[in-house]
């Protein structure tokens, strides 16, 4: 069967990922068929398998791509030596990253349950790495006498949950700008970890 006009691998592959991300976020992984993704992209259903082995591989690719981007972007962000300044940088980074990737954030949390066990383990390891980076900041802050939390691991989970939750209510063009939201969340995060 001939390839659909305009269907080149460097164009079609990313379009498949974009369509799947949008459809999974809107309808849920279980409700979206490969045929529906193909229709959205404008290719024959069988053509999808030239780009991705199956729907599970597509979900895994989206979640891994999100975590890889999150980790690489944070690691490329300047890291102040002072733990409190580093915590502020983390909070502001996480808010900006989250607000600009609403669909990726949504499926990263809501569709994690649909990963097959071996894929789940890989994504959980990446998530653990990111959580560990925040936990290290909190441990450094404790050691420097700047922060006071009873359990740095639980505090890291709580902070990430709070910061990621911004995605559920924030709308661009609303009452608060992205920077105002980041400043408010930094103030709440600072108080939550006992910083002065």
Automatic annotation (TrEMBL):
Domain of life (superkingdom)? Bacteria
User: Which intervals hold domain HTH tetR-type?
Assistant: 10-70
Q: Which residues bind DNA?
A: 33-52
Task: Tell me which UniProt keywords the record has, alphabetically.
Answer: DNA-binding
Which PROSITE patterns does this one have?
HTH_TETR_2 (PS50977)
MF annotations from Gene Ontology: DNA-binding transcription factor activity; transcription cis-regulatory region binding
> What's the protein called, per UniProt?
Transcriptional regulator, TetR family
Q: What is the phylogenetic placement of the source species in the record? A: Bacteria, Pseudomonadati, Pseudomonadota, Alphaproteobacteria, Rhodobacterales
């Amino acid at each position: 069967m001939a390839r659909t006009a305009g269907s080149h691998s460097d164009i079609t592959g990313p379009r498949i990922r974009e369509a799947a991300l949008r459809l999974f976020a809107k309808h849920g992984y279980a409700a979206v068929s490969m045929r529906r993704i193909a229709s959205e992209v404008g290719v024959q259903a069988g053509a999808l398998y030239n780009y991705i082995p199956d729907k599970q591989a597509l979900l895994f690719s989206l979640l891994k791509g999100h975590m890889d981007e999150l980790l690489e972007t944070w690691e490329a962000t300047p890291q102040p030596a002072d733990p409190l300044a580093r915590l502020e940088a983390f909070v502001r980074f996480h808010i900006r990253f989250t607000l600009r990737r609403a669909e990726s954030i949504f499926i990263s949390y809501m569709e994690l349950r649909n990963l097959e066990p071996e894929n789940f383990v890989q994504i959980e390891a990446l998530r653990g790495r990111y959580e560990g980076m925040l936990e290290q900041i909190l441990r450094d802050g404790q050691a420097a006498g700047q922060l006071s939390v009873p359990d740095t691991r639980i505090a890291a989970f709580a902070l990430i949950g709070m910061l990621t939750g911004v995605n559920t209510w924030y709308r661009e063009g609303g009452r608060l700008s992205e920077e105002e939201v980041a400043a408010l969340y930094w103030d709440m995060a600072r108080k939550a970890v006992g910083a002065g």
